[in-house]
Design a protein that fits this description.
Elements lengths: L65 H36 L5 H31 L5 H24 L8 H22 L1 H7 L5
Helix pairs in contact: 1-2, 1-4, 2-3, 3-4
Length: about 210
């Protein structure tokens, strides 16, 4: 009676044990993955937390949008112009006081002129502060900064509109002044539009500020 030949024996393959897969081959019972694919259960390095263009959590912007930057620049310009006007009125008040004091009997007129100039100095200084403060806080400010910027731009737009209606339409010599009023009002309205856009709303309502 003949028996089948025994299985081959060799190093690492004792008699009766199944042959081991060659080194480097995947073992049985594990999911096979193509080379270069990430392994399951391990964090992957080198991948961004959010895909490009997504911004951040919920699509929130991580850098100041261009509309907010433009509104900030316009507010700084408007605030600088108001501040320059305040300085001019202060200088005029001081010069008027010294000039009237040199003339006998005009002390009362000097005090009145200085008082008027100081009132304009306070008004222009307040407008400058109203424009510059929200512009300075736009990097870290929340919704209140945005509302303050819109209010400041609205007040800044009303004044040139009033001045534009006060210019006679038939007087060609006031054409330059009318153009400045239109430019002034236009920049203020642009500031309101930029601060009212969705990108500005997302920027001022982003988490973590």
């Amino acid at each position: 009676m003949s028996y089948p030949p025994p299985p081959p024996q060799g190093p690492g393959n004792p008699y009766g044990q199944p042959a081991q897969p060659p080194q480097g081959a995947p073992g049985y019972g594990y999911p096979q993955q193509a080379p270069g694919q990430p392994q399951y259960g391990y964090p992957q390095q080198g991948y961004p937390q959010y895909p490009p263009g997504a911004g951040g959590p919920g699509g929130m912007p991580q850098s100041m949008p261009g509309q907010v930057v433009a509104a900030r620049v316009l507010l700084f310009i408007a605030g600088s112009m108001w501040g320059l006007g305040a300085v001019i009125f202060l200088i005029v008040a001081l010069v008027a006081r010294d000039s009237f004091n040199d003339i006998p009997g005009l002390d009362t007129g000097a005090n009145v002129a200085m008082g008027v100039m100081l009132i304009f100095f306070v008004l222009f200084g307040g407008m400058a502060t109203l424009q510059i403060v929200p512009a300075s806080l736009m990097g870290k400010g929340r919704g209140g900064t945005r509302v303050t910027a819109i209010i400041a731009a609205a007040v800044n737009a009303i004044l040139p509109v009033i001045g534009l209606f006060s210019v006679p339409a038939s007087d060609d010599s006031n054409a330059g002044g009318a153009f400045l009023y239109i430019l002034w009002a236009g920049t203020a309205i642009l500031t309101i539009v930029f601060c009212s856009m969705q990108q500005a709303s997302q920027w001022f309502n982003r988490p973590g500020i």
